[in-house]
Specification:
31% of the residues lie in helices and 27% in strands. It has 111 residues and is an alpha+beta fold.
Length: 111
């Protein structure tokens, strides 16, 4: 599995446009074969700073995504909305685990 972690710093006043571009890219990526997950999220307390977290089955899926017309369209649309260069790191993961057994958590709310 390949995990992509990205940071994007965007124009705060263009939030609606930024989020529409990201929503379109997110939808397109999730439809690609080999995409296990793909999400943008705004960093809490840091307006305009978005994080990308994506999981891909393998390098071929990553390569297909980054060479796709949908990714080229995303790049063309997001570039004028950025205030700094984006950063992306890819991590090859051969194993993952859950650190806590979710079945043992008490998820009731204190109301």
């Amino acid at each position: 599995m390949i995990v992509a972690l990205g940071d994007l710093h965007t124009q705060i006043l263009e939030r609606a446009a930024v989020e529409q571009v990201m929503q379109d890219a997110q939808t397109a990526a999730r439809e690609r074969e080999g995409c296990e997950s793909f999400s943008f999220a705004e960093a809490v307390g840091d307006p305009g700073h978005y994080l990308l977290l994506a999981r891909w089955r393998d390098q071929a899926a990553v390569d297909a995504h980054y060479s796709s017309p949908a990714f080229a369209a995303y790049q063309a649309a997001i570039t004028p909305l950025l205030v700094a260069d984006s950063e992306l790191q890819l991590h090859v993961v051969d194993q993952s685990m859950r650190p806590v057994d979710a079945r043992t958590l008490d998820l009731r709310q204190d109301d």
